[in-house]
Amino acid sequence: MFSYWEKKNFFRYDLIVIGSGFTGLSTAVHYKRKHPKASVLILEKGVLPTGASTKNAGFACFGSLTEILDDFWKMTPEEVFSLVERRYKGLCQIRENFGDARLQYKANHGFELLEAENVAAADQMDEVNKMLKKIFKKDVFSIVKKPGKFGFSDRVKLVVENQFEGELDPGAYLGALWEKASELGVKILTGVSVVEVQKDDGLIIAENMAKDRIFEFSGDKVAICTNAFSKKLWPESDVEPGRGLVLLSKPIAGKIPWKGSFHLDKGYVYFRKIDGRLLLGGARNKDFEKEKTVEFETNPKIKSYLQQLAREVILPNQEIEWEMEWTGIMAFGSKKSPLIQPIGEKTAVAVRLGGMGVALGWQVGKELSQLLSKM
Predict the structure, then answer these.
(1) 152: Cβ–Cβ under 8 A, 6 or more apart, which residues?
(2) DSSP letter at 54?
């Protein structure tokens, strides 16, 4: 039972965004900038964003050497180039809009560990650099001359450096988006799970977390920014969830002899140093089928693999005790490029960010807001 005042002020909006992650918040901010008098509401089922925005590893990256080479098997050279360009421009845009200090961005470069089975990738490095020079004006990738300085095991044959990548704090980035949305007058309601969207009418049926109360919201326009959870609201989509595990150690007693964001195995595994700890994640390719889920659980097979990798390869001479673990749910599909399109007279989506929400969320939100403005 709602009061007259509640019905009058809290259930009808010019735009309703479903999902409060990087893409959802960016969509609301860009739309409100273009339409300052519009009423904009964001609905989020969790207290914090549910998917991966605040659960990722904090990499400001756009693709390692082996990941880009692997993309050539599934995409045209033009598509690969466009994807890298879009990701890099996205990273530049968030740094320009929010500043490195606010994002806690550190330009510590990216590195990729090449073991024996993929060391041949270095032979194609010059060709990839030549293709990417149109974007970066310089060579992106180079071979580290003294890889032994990192202290990795001898399983690592080569280390490739990427001078254009860095690290940031995804929580700080989300906080910056929150502040910007608040300044513009965007409302955010958490603890509201959307059950159904009537895409042509702009009617949204939602429930509280206890599932004992139903709410009806009405929007002149609706934006679905739920990424991996989009099947619930858009069953015909090709979006597929991909769960990612992240482990965080206790402070390491000995010195960690490197800094930067590190990748291996075509970008599926990633690690970095944070506050004297080892942050290590990924490896969903070790059990693809079980990781195609929206359940926030730990896969013991992947956890064991990552812990072994830390002991044997990353910090072979250090004692490692693990303190925290969590999972984030990303979204993938038939292509790596984001999916931004109308799916009803009043509804549009922006999903399938391919694990690159940090790099893509701001620009994807801008493109979705532009699409919504034309609907």
Answers:
(1) 113, 159, 313, 314, 316
(2) T
Domains, the chain, with CATH or none: 4-54+171-238+335-374 (3.50.50.60), 59-168+240-332 (3.30.9.10)
Give the pTM: 0.94
- Closest Cα to residue 353, out of 86, 46, 123, 134? 86
Residue 210 pLDDT > 80 = no
CA torsion angle 34 40 46 48 (round to 10): 40
CB atoms within 10 A of CB 247: 23
CA–CA gap between residue 51 and residue 116 (Å, rounded): 35
**Cβ(12)–Cβ(217) below 8 Å:** yes
Q: Hey, what amino acid is at 320? A: I
Q: Any residues with CB less than 8 A from the CB of 218 and at least 6 apart, and which?
A: 11, 12, 13, 202, 203, 204
Report the chain's terminal Cα–Cα distance, integer Å: 33
Tell me how far apart the alpha carbons of residues 30 and 33 are, in angstroms, rounded to a whole number. 5
Are the C-beta atoms of residues 360 and 82 closer than 8 Å to each other?
A: no
Whether 52 and 296 have beta carbons less than 8 Å apart is answered as no
What are the tokens at 356?
């690159």
Residue pair 26/338 in contact (Cβ under 8 Å)? The answer is no
CA distances from 281 to 185, 197, 234, 263 (A): 36, 34, 29, 10
Strand (E) or helix (H) holding 218: strand 214-224
Tell me the per-residue pLDDT of 230-259, one tens digit each, with 9 for 90 and over.
999 999 998 999 999 999 999 998 789 899
